[in-house]
Amino acid sequence: MKANTKPTLSDLEKKIIKFRDDRNWKQFHNPKDLALSLNLESAEVLEHFQWKNNKELEEYVEKNKDVIGQEIVDVIYYCLLLSHEINVDINKAFIQKMKLNNKKYPVKKAKNNHKKYTELS
Amino acid sequence: MKANTKPTLSDLEKKIIKFRDDRNWKQFHNPKDLALSLNLESAEVLEHFQWKNNKELEEYVEKNKDVIGQEIVDVIYYCLLLSHEINVDINKAFIQKMKLNNKKYPVKKAKNNHKKYTELS
Amino acid sequence: MKANTKPTLSDLEKKIIKFRDDRNWKQFHNPKDLALSLNLESAEVLEHFQWKNNKELEEYVEKNKDVIGQEIVDVIYYCLLLSHEINVDINKAFIQKMKLNNKKYPVKKAKNNHKKYTELS
Amino acid sequence: MKANTKPTLSDLEKKIIKFRDDRNWKQFHNPKDLALSLNLESAEVLEHFQWKNNKELEEYVEKNKDVIGQEIVDVIYYCLLLSHEINVDINKAFIQKMKLNNKKYPVKKAKNNHKKYTELS
Question: Cβ D50–A33 below 8 Å, yes or no?
Answer without folding.
Answer: yes
